[in-house]
Design brief:
The chain contains 21 helices and seven strands. With about 550 residues, the protein is α/β, with parallel strands linked by helices. The longest helix has 29 residues.
């Protein structure tokens, strides 16, 4: 009997830690199938990432040595994954899973500051099962742990008003600047507004004005200095291509009205979707939201209610400012930046609404969330298992990964890689056009030029074309890999030689001749499907 009491006391005192450990175990279960599986592999975006990480491992610098459109931090993180685990796509997928698990741990710790450990576990398992998935790049996953870490420190500041949490938050924000600069800037604004509002409501005055003003000016200035040091020797046209914030470098630019209409449609679809998790979630959110508003109004003078309210306001600010990319483009997947904040907000609203209910009801609600999340994860595991067969296996060098790409895409890639490996000499390389850096990675070849992308919206001037031609000669580019995406109907892509790079096209026509073709050139090319390749070899008399 005494042992049972001791065990009960131990479990009660260590409930938060024990449930965190259980959450980590469930997280590993949810994410494990993705260690050698990627839903879609694009020869352009993913190829750029994989090549950039390997180049960084070999000593290259982002921007200066290769085209890169995000912050400089993540190439070094993923390069370390290559160093530890070997150069393969699986290494990057494992490094990505590690980031997601870290984000999950931070999510648990953040929500547990305002909610019970059981709710923290249920919410975190939900977060891991329905996590924001940036399917088009590995870079963005690195920002999510710092998003949640920022909220963790903000929550501590709201509760304690200690300056150390201001400094910790600003350090986290500074890291975000080096992963995605625009997100760092807008989340810095969100953070400083939260701090000022907290001071005003809790302390009756904004007590850290100097710190806020200095950080508003100093952090962007420091980030600008780092970016400037990395790009100071580059021509202005290449800098613009690496930081495509001007409308002329963004083919997805949309009006704010169009974005708002799209936002409403997305929200409406999520509410009315026949998906079981969506229906359950929508009903619970509406009921709990109404109840939470009533409870907060009733207890508005309590200090804990003020802190809870301030944290919700902070999450709303992060959601609003985090949608700036979506507002500028109406591209739905850019809404994924704010998913962690949405989930924190929703689960905290639910917890606040049910905190006065009986333990049995609260426990039942937690279990429902866990069951729905784990059921969805198991269903996804079954879908992943369907693709783990030889028809969807990409096996080249140390890479052995299963992908959803059609077998025809895999056949085109493997056939092209085999040809290049057999025919491109050790002291030679090739130029992949218009956006096919995956071939550099899979053949372990270096691009002859820092430019990795050639499309209409990149705005390549003739000066740059001539510099590229000079690089081709100097670095012994004996072959050209030209994909069918060189003639695309997608907005902003254009036709190679007609709408962009006429000088480079003329040089290739005069100095190279087609020697092999792979894939079906009759299909309209896509981002990661209907892929076809034409290989050209430098003429011997040239």
């Amino acid at each position: 009997m005494k042992k049972i009491q001791l065990l009960s006391t131990f479990l009660s005192k260590n409930q938060k830690i024990l449930l965190l450990v259980l959450t980590c175990i469930l997280g590993i279960f949810i994410l494990a199938p993705y260690a050698n599986f990627q839903p879609i592999l694009a020869q352009g975006d993913h190829g750029r990432d994989l090549y950039a990480f390997r180049s960084t491992l070999e000593g290259s610098t982002p921007y200066e040595d290769y085209w890169w459109v995000y912050g400089p931090a993540m190439p070094y993180y993923y390069a370390s994954a290559y160093k530890i685990l070997g150069i393969s796509i699986q290494s990057i997928l494992i490094a990505k899973i590690f980031l997601i698990l870290i984000a999950g741990i931070l999510f648990y710790l953040t929500i547990s500051l305002f909610a019970s450990p059981m709710m923290a576990m249920a919410a975190t398992v939900w977060f891991l099962a329905f996590r924001p998935e940036f399917f088009y790049t590995y870079n963005h996953t690195g920002a999510i742990p710092f998003f949640i870490l920022t909220m963790f420190f903000i929550a501590h500041y709201i509760q304690s008003c200690q300056k150390k949490f201001i400094y910790a938050t600003l350090l986290s924000i500074s890291t975000i600047f080096l992963i995605k600069a625009n997100m760092g800037f807008f989340f810095l604004l969100s953070t400083l507004i939260t701090f000022a509002l907290t001071d005003y409501i809790k302390e009756k005055k904004i007590q850290n004005k100097k710190i806020y003003i200095l950080s508003l000016l100093g952090i962007p200035a420091l980030a600008f200095l780092i970016y400037w040091l990395l790009t100071r020797n580059l021509p202005i046209y290449f800098i613009k291509q690496c930081f495509p914030y001007l409308p002329s470098y963004d083919p997805t630019h949309a009006s704010i009205w169009m974005s708002l209409v799209k936002l409403w449609r997305v929200v409406l679809w999520n509410i009315t979707s026949w998906s079981l998790p969506n229906r359950i979630f929508a009903i619970i959110i509406f009921l709990c939201g109404f109840r939470s508003i009533q409870a907060m109004l009733k207890n508005s003078q309590e200090n804990k209610t003020k802190e809870f309210f301030l944290f919700l306001i902070s999450l709303i600010l992060f959601i609003f400012f985090g949608l700036h990319e979506f507002f500028a483009s109406a591209i739905v997947y850019r809404m994924r930046w704010v998913n962690p904040f949405q989930m924190l907000f929703i689960f905290l609203i639910i917890e606040y609404a049910i905190k006065n209910l009986s333990k049995v009801i609260r426990f039942s609600i937690y279990i429902i969330f866990l069951i729905v999340a784990l059921t969805s994860a198991v269903q996804q595991h079954k879908i992943v298992a369907l693709y783990k067969n030889n028809n969807h296996l990409l096996q080249i060098n140390k890479t052995k990964v299963y992908i959803e790409n059609p077998p025809s895409w895999i056949n085109t890639v493997t056939s092209s890689v085999d040809y290049l490996k057999k025919n491109v000499n050790k002291d030679e390389t090739f130029l992949a056009l218009p956006y096919d850096s995956l071939y550099y990675f899979l053949t372990n070849k270096k691009s002859p030029t820092r430019e990795l992308i050639f499309f209409d919206y990149i705005n390549i001037p003739q000066e740059q074309e001539r510099a590229i031609i000079s690089d081709l000669k100097e670095n012994n580019a004996a072959y050209i890999v030209l994909s069918s995406r060189s003639d695309s109907k997608e907005a902003g892509l254009g036709t190679f030689g007609k709408t962009y790079c006429p000088v480079l096209k003329k040089y290739i026509d005069e100095n190279f001749t087609a020697v092999e073709t792979f894939g079906n050139w009759g299909n309209e090319p896509g981002w990661a499907w209907y892929h076809a390749v034409k290989i050209l070899k430098r003429k011997e008399n040239k």
